[in-house]
């Protein structure tokens, strides 16, 4: 066994595994994120920074809720909906959650069909994602107007701690803005897929660069992140 | 499960996404049930956190393809999140302290509209 290896010139060092692979990647004096395009790496880094933004909001909410001696309004009752005489706690929020999860599902499939170069299915699934996202924003607008009608303001509300309103409008408003921008970009990318920009190498009007189907996956990363943030808002703001 | 890795990305059978989608529905329904059946106390908090972590994990690992990303990228994204947990711990202590001083020194118990004092 030993002389077999002697007769062969040493091969390039084999790919280390685990933590050693991270050290090897980062110390290679080359690309740190190998086999990851710059677009995808930058989207991940943007999402990390956005995670910090939403974390700060949720931590601010936690701090406000713990530090006030005034009772916190019960979200289960505040967000209840009455249908045909029966009161369902958090009904609209639950529907919004299911709508957003469904939009994540259609987006994940759109990414897959984009790699199969199935333009039509990809575009249709992305537009379905956009429709579900728009429905989510619509329901959020309904929820906002309902609460404003009931007297919730950033500085007061009829049920308890005044911070409830400011936290609610800031967190859901910021998240809704993210969803809205996601819908806009979904429509833009879906149009490019539908028209065949990524197959023909047509240059984008803003960057004058040729795109490729990875744009769909990068768009998907953003959209799943929006869904991910809602998971945390749902757990900490609505259920806690 | 069979995965085809190309230089553009990882491809999976559509079935994988359907299965994850169904699981996300089930987990969301579970967390809604926590509220619907008025589960209270530590059981409520642990169930909320459990369902939240499972949903977040599924979304990040499968929908965002992190399970198939290179380890360097995974660590570059996940390790900094430890700072968030440290921040949470700091503000838990700080908020508790604020609550204690407000109740002890300002006699604020059950007196609304005193923010910013």
What is the helical fraction of chain B, as a range of percent? 55-70%
Tally the helices of chain B: what do you get?
A: 4
Q: What is the count of distinct domains of chain B?
A: 2
Ranges of chain A with pLDDT <50 over ≥5 residues? none
Tell the overall outline of chain A: globular
Overall pLDDT level of chain A: 90
Q: Helix content range of the residues of chain A, please?
A: 55-70%
Give a quick account of the main beta sheet of chain A: strands, pairing sense, barrel closure: 2 strands, antiparallel
Biggest interface reads: A-B, 70 and 64 residues
Can you give a write-up of this model?
The complex is a heterodimer of chains A (240) and B (117). Helix content of chain A is 70%, strand content 2%. With 240 residues, chain A is mostly helical. Chain A has one domain (37-239): Four Helix Bundle (Hemerythrin (Met), subunit A) (Up-down Bundle), CATH 1.20.120.80. Chain A has a two-stranded antiparallel sheet with strand order 1-2. The relative contact order of chain A is 0.13. The mean pLDDT of chain A is 90. With 117 residues, chain B is mainly alpha-helical. Chain B has 2 domains: 4-69; 80-117. Chain B has 4 helices and 2 strands, in the order ββαααα. Chain B has helices at 14-36, 41-63, 71-78, 81-105; strands spanning 4-5, 10-11. In chain B, helix 1 runs antiparallel to helix 2. Residues 4-8 of chain B have low confidence and may be disordered. Chains A and B meet through helix 2, helix 3, helix 5 and helix 9 of A and helix 1, helix 2, helix 3 and helix 4 of B.
């Amino acid at each position: 066994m030993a002389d077999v290896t002697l007769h062969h010139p040493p091969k390039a060092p084999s790919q280390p595994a685990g933590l050693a692979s991270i050290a090897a990647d980062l110390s290679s004096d080359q690309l740190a994120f190998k086999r990851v395009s710059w677009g995808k790496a930058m989207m991940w880094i943007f999402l990390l920074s956005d995670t910090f933004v939403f974390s700060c909001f949720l931590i601010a909410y936690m701090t406000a809720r713990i530090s006030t001696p005034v009772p916190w309004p019960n979200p289960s009752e505040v967000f209840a909906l009455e249908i045909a005489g029966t009161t369902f706690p958090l009904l609209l929020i639950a529907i919004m959650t299911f709508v957003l999860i469904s939009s994540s599902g259609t987006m994940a499939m759109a990414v897959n069909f984009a790699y199969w170069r199935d333009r039509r299915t990809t575009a249709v699934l992305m537009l379905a994602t956009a429709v579900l996202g728009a429905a989510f924003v619509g329901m959020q607008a309904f929820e906002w107007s309902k609460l404003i009608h009931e007297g919730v303001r950033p500085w007061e509300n009829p049920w308890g701690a005044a911070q409830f309103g400011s936290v609610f409008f800031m967190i859901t408003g910021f998240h809704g803005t993210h969803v809205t921008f996601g819908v806009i970009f979904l429509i833009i990318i879906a149009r490019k897929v539908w028209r065949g920009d990524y197959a023909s190498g047509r240059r984008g009007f803003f960057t004058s660069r040729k795109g490729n189907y990875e744009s769909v996956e990068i768009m998907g990363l953003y959209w799943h992140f929006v869904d991910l943030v809602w998971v945390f808002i749902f757990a900490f703001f609505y259920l806690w | 499960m069979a995965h085809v890795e190309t230089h553009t990305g990882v491809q999976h059978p559509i079935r994988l996404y359907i299965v994850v989608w169904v699981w996300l529905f089930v987990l969301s329904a579970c967390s809604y049930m926590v509220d619907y059946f008025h589960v209270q106390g530590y059981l409520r908090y642990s169930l909320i956190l459990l369902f939240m972590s499972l949903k977040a994990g599924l979304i990040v690992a499968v929908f965002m393809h992190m399970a198939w990303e290179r380890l360097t990228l995974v660590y570059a994204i996940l390790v900094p999140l430890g700072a968030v947990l440290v921040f949470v711990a700091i503000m838990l202590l700080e908020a508790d302290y604020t609550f204690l001083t407000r109740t002890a020194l300002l006699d604020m118990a059950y007196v609304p509209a005193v923010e910013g004092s």
